[in-house]
């Protein structure tokens, strides 16, 4: 891959991630589905366990729950069903910043994105949170399929979570 092709691949992956945030926030689940390979792996097992880079809990005044392996999802159909369950009716705003994208080969890449998300549940929601503001990272692996970059795996971790409880 020459320098121009590398830059084009990196730009295509940035656009892929931008579409991820947009389609999630717009609840465009069919558009969202198209961004992933069929047998993707999504790991949000530590998304509510704020830790520093060494794995030490950050918020000592509020014990964080342990990692939850129920939040490791395999397959796009299961992931889309989970998105419906957890996010339909929830106002969400997701931002990705400062991508660190490495091309592993012509058809595989990894990425690390700083992220920020804000979620607001309806007043009548059963969720004990009213609002959540999270800060963390996405660690991802991408593959090129039929000339298009897609997300093969994603791990979301947060280093800080601000919550407003009901």
TrEMBL record:
Residues 5-154 form the SnoaL-like domain. It holds the Pfam family SnoaL_4. This is Nuclear transport factor 2 family protein.
């Amino acid at each position: 891959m020459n320098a121009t092709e590398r830059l084009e691949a990196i730009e295509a992956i940035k656009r892929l991630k931008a579409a991820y945030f947009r389609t999630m926030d717009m609840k465009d689940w069919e558009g969202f589905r198209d961004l992933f390979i069929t047998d993707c792996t999504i790991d949000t097992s530590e998304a509510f366990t704020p830790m520093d880079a060494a794995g030490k809990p950050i918020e000592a005044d509020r014990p964080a729950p342990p990692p939850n392996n129920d939040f490791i999802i395999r397959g796009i159909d299961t992931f889309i069903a989970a998105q419906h369950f957890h996010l339909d009716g929830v106002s969400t705003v997701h931002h990705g910043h400062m991508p660190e994208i490495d091309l592993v080969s012509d058809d595989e890449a990894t990425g690390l994105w700083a992220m920020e998300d804000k979620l607001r549940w309806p007043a009548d929601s059963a969720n004990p949170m009213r609002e959540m503001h999270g800060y963390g990272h996405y660690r991802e692996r991408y593959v090129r399929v039929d000339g298009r970059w897609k997300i093969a795996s994603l791990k979301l971790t947060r280093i800080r979570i601000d919550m407003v409880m009901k």
